[in-house]
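Lab notebook, bench 4. The sequencing result for the construct came back, and we need a structural model before the next group meeting so we can plan mutations. Quick request posted to the team channel:

Model the 3D structure of this chain.
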Amino acid sequence: MSPTDPELEAFLDEGLPPERMSALEEALRGDAALRERAARIIARRNSGAHSVAEIWRAARVSCATRAEWGQYLLGVLDAGHAEYLRFHLEAIGCRYCAANVADLQAQQQALALAANAAQERRRKYYASSAGLLKK
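Done. Here's the predicted structure in token form:
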């Protein structure tokens, strides 16, 4: 199946799921006509002629902010907004937002580990000094 021009544009913006990116890269290597279509898209972009769709994609207007993703992970967004973000992440498969979410989740885990370590230190300090306090 030959990719559409919007799909080629998404490929050039690295905005497709990894599996589709790999498939298109392989197709581009073996198909001169497809490479020519991609070259025309690049030339049009470099000429300064932009459509509303291109500006929308370039500015990532449909993507949530990092703060919104943080609120999403904390579960504090209203149901409609949370459902849109879930759709954007899972159905659309936005790699930029997926990277933001993965980074925020890693930060959450690191903070949880640090909090657990601090709590364990406090417990050990208390346990080591409890006998001294009784005297």
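The mean pLDDT is 87.
Will bring this to the meeting.
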